[in-house]
UniProtKB/TrEMBL annotation:
One of its GO terms (molecular function) is agmatinase activity. Binds 2 manganese ions per subunit. Belongs to the arginase family. InterPro entries: Ureohydrolase, Ureohydrolase_dom_sf, Ureohydrolase_Mn_BS. PANTHER family: AGMATINASE 1-RELATED, ARGINASE/AGMATINASE. The lineage of its organism: Eukaryota, Fungi, Dikarya, Basidiomycota, Agaricomycotina. This is agmatinase.
Amino acid sequence: MKAIAILNLVLSAAIVVAHDGHHDDGSQMPLDYVRFPYQAQYPGDNTVTADSIFSGITTFARLPWVQCLGKDRSEAFDIAFIGAPFDTGTSYRPGARFGPAGIRAGSRRLTLYGGYNVPLDVNPFLSGLKIVDCGDIPVTPYDNKYAIKQIEDGHKELLHRKTYSPLGNDSLTGQPLIPVSKDGKHHPRVITLGGDHTIVLPLLRSIYSAYGAISVIHFDSHLDTWKPQVFGGAPSSQAAINHGTYFYWASQEGLIKNGSSIASHGAIRTTLSGPADYENDDDSGFQRIEAREIDTIGTDGIIKKIREVVGDKPVYLSIDIDSIDPAFAPATGTPETGGWSTRELRTILRGLDGLHIVSADIVEVAPAYDTNAELTTMAAADVLFEVMSVMAKTPLGKVQN
Ligand SMILES: [Mn+2]
């Protein structure tokens, strides 16, 4: 007993000495050669990196975990990742409740080499913005109506928090930027990890509270504007809100900007109940880009179409992983063959550089159907890397006219 006590004493003393004089970053990283993995740089710049990305508790891209909805409610940030593990609005394969955990696992290697995005010439992790992983919104699997309210409240809680960084000045003119929001405040951006696509209804309700009716860029192989009678048959008011009808409801509630500022689907290739589905989609305020258009107009043509529709308006970005072909992303609720490659979707997302993307999500990742090689969760994580890079380059502000 005595020997053990002495050994303990010696060990504690050694730990104190080891900590003394070194950076204490407050994270659970006792090895002083790993400071912040997401600030990784090669030797010669005072930090060794290529280690540890596969160890520890998994957050998105190994970003710091902040309990934004719990004890860290006062913590400010600029971009927050948050999970919405909801999949009880799914028509075919369930399992997207495990999407947030899967996407985080697929994101572990994002910062292995430091996270510099070559085509966009930006490192979002070193852009000065405070980017955190807020964990998941608690979502009940027993009551969709209640769960949808939980998602709205959780998102709102983050969206209305103070930003960590000020909006700053316009890089061209040097004039101070003013927020693009409707309430005149500078809001942080939230990137939601779904969850099935139903979650976008509560997310857009939250977005409305800051931005009013919003333009939407929607990548999906499906319309998701179906009337409840067409999709699911609407046997009850709860069943009427599902992952094929949430945009119908969002449009009915006036959450989506209609008319001249129209949202645009990309990657559409689903079969329909009939041509009337497209008329209904028109009524909901969407313009469509078909998946097969990539064969004729290419990624450049698709980027051009999206930018023409959205212009410089604030825009919400919703990405269904099934916009990517199941060859590249099989783990999803309602797969459709004939889709875009991961490379093509990433190129198109980089083409949104300069747009005011106020918040975003990726949905319908159901890891149970993935390959052992984590194809889908890796694709989802890499897609979000492009989104956060675009966000890091463009502040949510404009110059006063
Ligand atoms: Mn969808």
